Structures are given as C-alpha cells and as structure tokens.
Amino acid sequence: MARTRIYKNLNMKIEKKYYFYAGHRNKSAGEKCGRPHGHTYDVTCTFRFGTMKNGITMLFSDIDKLVEPIIKEYDHYFLLCEDDPLVEILELAGEEYKTVPFETSAENMAIWLFNRIKNEAGLPIIKIEFAETKSSKIIYEEE
Ligand SMILES: [Zn+2]
Question: 94 alpha carbon to ligand 1 midpoint, in Å?
C-alpha cells in the first residue's frame, strides 16, 4: 500500500470556470443596460488550498458539486433588483424570475456570488472573475 503523503503550507490554486444564461436590466446603469436584455455570464473562480493529501487538494468534481447549484440557480431566469417595477408586472403575468437585493450590475453580481460560494459552499475562494460580455469582466478579490 502506498504511503500517505501530506503537504502543508502550500499555496496551491485551482481555477474553475462556470457559466449561466440570464436576462436582466439595470436601471441605474444608463439607457442601454436599463433595457431588458440578456447575457451569457462567464464565472471564473480561483480557490486557494494550503494542504494536499496524496497529490490532491480537492477533487475538481467535488468543487463543482458545491458551486454549480449556486451558479445554476440563476440559469435561464430573468434577474431583477427586488425594487424594480417589472417584478410586479412579471408577477401579474405569471412569469418566472429571480430577485436579488441589489441592482444587477456585474460588480454586484460578482460580490454576491463570491460571498455565496465562500459562505454557503464553504470553499476557499480568493478571486472571482465575472464576465458579462466577451470584452468586459469584473475581477473581485478579497483583500
Ligand atoms: Zn446587461
């Protein structure tokens, strides 16, 4: 039987990429973003691990099992700030949507997802990259 090898005090990082599709609008971000529209949101998470056992910090699939339910919760939904008047209209029309307690800017979404992955999934996330378009993304790191 192979000897167990444990490494401690490592600075090992794992980067994982996820995505989801969603509609939204952001009334506080000008005319273009104020219109209902949608994005393919690319979410890249960086995790830092200090310990490795038998060559593994954490299985990629185990990270996915914890992160994907959080990311996919918003997949193919219309995301709205809870104060948006469209909430009432979609409610009356019987349409499905998701609300969040903030304007759905990329900055707010990045911080929201970072904190959910850290606190609900309990993963050692240190950085999130949140891309709304092919050319623009937010990079949020905890200080
Ligand atoms: Zn947008």
Answer: 23
DSSP 113: H
Sequence-distant (≥ 6) Cβ neighbours of residue 65 within 8 angstroms: none
Kindly report the average pLDDT of the chain as a whole number. Answer: 95
Amino acid 27: pLDDT: 82
CA of 61 to the centre of ligand 1 (A): 30
Would you place residue 1 in the very low, low, confident or very high pLDDT band (cuts 50, 70, 90)? low
pTM of the model: 0.92
- Residue 2 C-alpha to ligand 1 middle, in angstroms? 52
Please state which architecture CATH assigns to domain 6-141. Answer: 2-Layer Sandwich (3.30)
